[in-house]
Amino acid sequence: MLSACRLCGSRNLKRYYTQGNQSQYEFYKCMNCKLVNYDLSKGLNQEKYAREYIDPSDHKHRHNAGQTQTYDFIRRTIGNSGKLLDIGCGNGRLLFLAQSAGWQVKGLERSGFLRDSIKKAIGLDVEVCDFLSYEPGEGDLFDVVVLRHVLEHLPDPVLSMRRINSLLKIGGYAVLEFPNIEAPDLKFKRFLRKMGFHKKKYAPDYKPTL
Ligand SMILES: [Zn+2]
After folding, report:
1. What confidence score (pLDDT) does residue 46 get?
2. 83 lies in which domain range?
3. Are 25 and 38 in a shared domain?
4. What is the Å distance from ligand 1's center to 46 Cα?
5. Are residues 55 and 121 in the same domain?
């Protein structure tokens, strides 16, 4: 079991919900900072998105909706020019929108498949690396750094936030996005599962994804 919250270090954790056919993948809620921590020692599937590629210029595809929302938020609250870094840029939808609007963009991905697909689809060079080891060029800092649905899975979120801070220009913005575990549909699913009504069948090789 997980011994301490990865964000605040508190040991006051409550087993919150599980995944997997044997309920072997455990998620703990920190009663201090409320972050829900997955017990990473059980393993993660980091390949989920690496087998399919969705055209980032497809405005109608539902897979692109999340990144479109994030970009709209940036456009409304920050603006339409400067340098933007997307950490874990997926299929490159956000980079595509930002670049089309006038941002200078840079993307980091862990998947070589996604890098190659982005290059083919929109001609953009994305770097394959773990962002903690990413070294920008001298003085190469960003107005905006985006991290969507990643921080909550990282072994050391505090170190990761420090790292993001070091990649920002003074006065720059970090745009961090988290799933809302208290969303009504997720709450309802957890309730049904707890009552035994919602027996989800997991694939034999299922592991929670990043
Ligand atoms: Zn905590």
Report:
1. 67
2. 48-177
3. yes
4. 24
5. yes
